[in-house]
Write a structure and sequence with these properties.
420 residues, mainly alpha, Growth Hormone, Chain: A, 0% strand, globular, disordered N terminus
Length: 420
């Protein structure tokens, strides 16, 4: 069997220079993640507008985050299996096109049922794109630039909190929530153009099979990383899905100030992304632990220290700083632990990430509806608090020598069948 490193660059491996076109392609995928995270999280800032227009409660409107998250969690592991040898460039173009169409349907949805159907299509696009993007970005640059490429791609996700969600909230307030979905679709069209002109052909280097996905759990670090993803992301979205009601009812902040505050949240998230990326190069495990501790502290004290506009604002910024580092820190941890199984491990982590979004938002909706709005903060803190236990288990597993041999990867060469 021939094994190929999925991170093999398109340029010479030992080169210190990367063609501008390669970096532009990485940036294009970063803009793609920006667009998708914007679309996925767009309802967060629009819950009051959509709920009022379609006559549903804020808890029910939260299903607009739950549905695409659940669908993406299924799509992420299955799409790499389903597309087989398909050129990954074609796959990304198709997924972005689907996102554009879904946003068009959202903009004209006559009722909440149709809107949820459109959000289902969004989930397919999100799960597929995320499962492929990180593994493809690292193929565009030499090995020494991989952490930087990963930070850029995930920087697109955190940047969505700076411009995407706040901009959507602002558009929804100034114009109409339907206009916000139109704007998100237009952004998807720009990404589509960028992929068509900048992304080179990306032939499949791995044929991911269903049996390779659960096998990743045998690796203690991959297993701990996936569990940490579920806890941190689930805890975050249990609370963040309802951040607008939280800021209004807990901190006493008016609706007009929520958009600018989410902008500040996103700026802090971008800073956290790149700080975590730099820290992960030195000690990725410590970085994950630090993030979990900071996020837990912010969520736990918010119901007490966030009862004023100033306190709520400061804690929101700390929240953004902490969560901004989650994707890049955990993905870097997994990439370093399983370099021979990039697509399989990334697909598994992406699946759990989106499942955590869905279940976190669902749990938050239950708590907000039947207990209290501030209760979503405590719920999120309980989730993130458990992350340190998952990281500790990875350390014990590594110390005991329970590591996973490189997962077999079927290598595809043009015109050849895969060899085993």
């Amino acid at each position: 069997m021939t094994v190929v490193d999925a991170r093999k660059p398109l340029t010479t491996a030992d080169s210190d220079r990367v063609p501008l076109r390669s970096w532009l392609a990485v940036v294009t995928m970063a803009v793609g993640t920006f667009a998708l995270v914007t679309v996925e999280s767009l309802p967060v800032g629009l819950l009051p507008f959509i709920g009022g227009a379609l006559h549903v409660s804020e808890g029910t409107a939260g299903l607009m985050v739950t549905v695409p998250g659940l669908v993406a969690s299924v799509t992420a592991p299955l799409l790499p299996v389903a597309i087989g040898r398909l050129d990954r460039r074609i796959a990304l173009i198709g997924l972005i096109t689907l996102m554009v169409l879904a946003n068009g349907l959202s903009a004209v949805a006559p009722d909440f049922t149709v809107l949820l159907g459109a959000r289902l299509l969004v989930g397919i696009s999100i799960g597929g794109f995320w499962s492929l993007a990180a593994g493809l970005a690292v193929r565009l640059v030499p090995d020494r630039f991989v952490p930087r490429a990963v930070s850029v791609v995930f920087g697109g996700a955190t940047a969505a909190n700076v411009l995407g969600v706040p901009a959507g909230t602002l558009i929804g307030g100034l114009a109409d929530w339907r206009t916000a979905f139109v704007a998100a679709g237009a952004l998807g069209l720009l990404v589509l153009v960028g992929l068509l002109f900048l992304l080179p052909s990306m032939p499949a280097q791995q044929v991911v099979q269903l049996r390779t996905l659960p096998r990743q759990f045998r690796h203690p670090v991959v297993r701990a990383g996936v569990i940490a993803t579920f806890l941190l992301v689930g805890g975050h979205f249990a609370a963040f899905t309802f951040v607008s009601p939280v800021l209004r009812t807990v901190s006493g902040i008016g609706e007009g100030a929520i958009g600018p505050l989410l902008l500040g949240f996103g700026v802090a998230g971008i800073l956290g992304n790149f700080l975590a990326g730099a820290a992960a190069e030195r000690n990725v495990r410590t970085t994950v632990v630090t993030i979990s501790v900071l996020l837990t502290a912010v969520l736990a004290v918010f119901p007490l220290a966030g009862r004023t506009p100033v306190g709520g604002t400061l804690l929101l910024l700390g929240w953004g700083l902490a969560f901004g580092g989650v994707p890049v820190a955990i993905q870097t941890w997994i990439l370093k632990a399983a370099p021979a199984s990039v697509e399989a491990a990334t697909a598994l982590n992406t699946s759990v990430y989106n499942l955590a979004i869905a279940l976190g938002a669902l749990l938050g909706g239950i708590v907000a509806t039947h207990l209290s709005t501030s209760g979503v903060l405590t719920t999120g803190a309980l989730f993130t608090l458990l992350t340190a236990l998952a990281v500790r288990s990875a350390r014990r597993g590594r110390a005991a020598g329970r590591t996973l041999p490189a997962t077999p990867i079927h290598t595809i060469s043009p015109g050849q069948e895969h060899r085993t």
